[in-house]
Design a protein that fits this description.
The protein is α/β, with parallel strands linked by helices. The protein has one domain: Maf protein (Alpha-Beta Complex). A seven-stranded mixed β-sheet has the order 2-1-3-4-5-6-7. Strand 6 and strand 7 form a beta hairpin. The C terminus is likely disordered.
């Protein structure tokens, strides 16, 4: 069974990938588990640039195939911001960034609060990037946070078809519809090449 490094130091994101990739024939490894302290600079202009750079860097450092992503929130009323700067929108915690986002949208009416989570996954071997895949989840920015699951902007990302925020979903529900789940699904051909062609993503 081959190893696959999940190139993140974000514990919440790592847990999501452990669930999302549970049906694939890999032993998932973390940077901490491999003793890696490397951190990729996310200074690309697009999610794809950041994901490709991160995957290549971690694959080379670990000597293993690596999966990396870059993801973020795009808000229509903010011309696509915070976008690639989602994790650095303002200094501080996730809660600080949520408060800053709500303040930026304070006078924006409900019908103009459309937004999407976008995720680009890159898969790399130590010799270079094999390819990328993208997933998108559409929603609306809520007027106030709700729910205590997930991480990042999940408490204010409202899903009209489910009448709840991303943070109010159970993990299995989130892993059916999230941008990261959709990107992982789209990355299956790349992952199957690494895994020797067996299996797919597990689902409830």
């Amino acid at each position: 069974m081959p190893d696959l490094l999940i190139a993140t130091h974000n514990a919440g994101k790592l847990r999501e990938y452990e669930r999302l990739l549970a049906g694939l024939r890999f032993r998932l490894r973390s940077p901490a588990g491999r003793g890696l302290s490397v951190t990729a600079a996310e200074n690309g202009a697009t999610f794809e640039e950041n994901a490709r750079h991160k995957a290549a860097l971690y694959a080379a450092a670990a000597g293993l195939p690596a999966l990396a992503d870059d993801s973020g929130l795009e808000v229509d009323a903010l011309d696509g911001a915070p976008g690639v700067l989602s994790a650095r929108y303002v200094p501080g915690s996730d809660a600080d960034r949520v408060r800053a986002l709500l303040e930026a949208l304070r006078d924006v009416p409900w019908e103009r609060r459309g937004a999407r989570f976008r995720c680009v996954i890159a898969v790399a071997r130590p010799g270079g990037v094999m390819g990328t895949a993208e997933g998108i989840c559409e929603g609306t920015i809520a007027l106030e946070p709700a729910g205590d699951g997930g991480f990042g902007y999940d408490p204010v990302f409202y899903l009209p078809e489910l009448d709840c925020t991303m943070a109010q979903l159970k993990p299995d529900e989130k892993n059916r519809i999230s941008h990261r789940a959709r990107a992982a699904e789209a990355a299956l051909p790349l992952l199957r090449r690494l895994a020797g062609g067996r299996s797919g993503l597990s689902g409830p």
